[in-house]
Amino acid sequence: MASTSLFLPTTAGAAAAATARRYPFFSHRSHSHVPSTRLRRAPRLVAVSAATSPASSSLDALIFDCDGVILESENLHRQAYNDAFAHFGVRCPPASADPLCWDEAFYDELQNRIGGGKPKMRWYFGENGWPSSKIFETPPSTDSDKEKLVDIIQDWKTERYKEIIKSGTVEPRPGVLQLMDEVKGAGHKLAVCSAATKSSVIMCLENLIGLERFNGLDCFLAVQPGRKSKKKTPEPEVHSQEQHHSSCSPSDDVKLKKPDPTIYITAAEKLGVESKNCLVVEDSVIGLLAAKGAGMSCVITYTPSTASQDFTDAIATYPDLSNVRLEDLKLLLRKTLVTG
């Protein structure tokens, strides 16, 4: 298989590579540095009296990320990319005997540092040389051909990812459905904001949380793929429900991926709540940065691939949501808002 070892761009607080011998160009980190106790413990819950908890210091909306939070998706995405590389005979560098294959250790580093499938491919091909493939027999040299290559691979990969999700072998992470039901039952706003492609997020939500919960979302935001634009700072696009999915709650599309905070800022606007009264559930530093950039508090439910990241700015970290209740989160947010 083609080699996948090169230095990745850094993100503040992100972990370095997990396997120094196999990936000598990564910043090194030994396995011994991955904490067995999984980073920060959730802060001890402190009851706050009515005198110190004004109405503005409350939880109005809980916002979930999708990939990594609702489901552990890293290996599913990696499988879909590798299937796409094999399908199109993508060889990078072009002289490689076998199609490109991103292994688990490399993909963990890649997906935790670069958000979005197209940016991942653009960066990788830019560093390793644009590939030969069944799409272009010789490596593309013009910007338009490079974008065409990335678009075709990403579109095929997205459809392959949907097939994996629809196979019935994927389940939501522990505690997710229970917490969603608690939020809706208590009359709070519930949203899903994902940096993944909108069509694949819809497929995930339909299959993993069910149509009733999906239709009950107060806000659903995802990335609507578009071809390269001349606009330097694209604004969120607002579309009617029927343009994307007839059973989806009112939804909007954004073009800027996390860690840009646009998706969470847009969510607060659409939910009609202040950012400070929103609580975000994320699994990675990239998502945490987006939430903080929007002025929102964030709790982390980490996965094996994100467990060693620096979540200092989160108000709590959990291995999963199985023992997390709505009241716990309300008290955490209230304490955070009161203490500043």
Automatic annotation (TrEMBL):
Protein's organism: Urochloa decumbens
Record's protein name: Haloacid dehalogenase-like hydrolase domain-containing protein
Domain of life (superkingdom): Eukaryota
NCBIfam families registered for this protein in UniProt: HAD-SF-IA-v3
Pfam family, one: Hydrolase
Residue numbers spanned by region Disordered: 228-255
Compositionally skewed regions (Basic and acidic residues) per UniProt: 232-245
Matching InterPro entries: CbbY-like, HAD-like_sf, HAD-SF_hydro_IA, HAD_sf, PGP-like_dom2
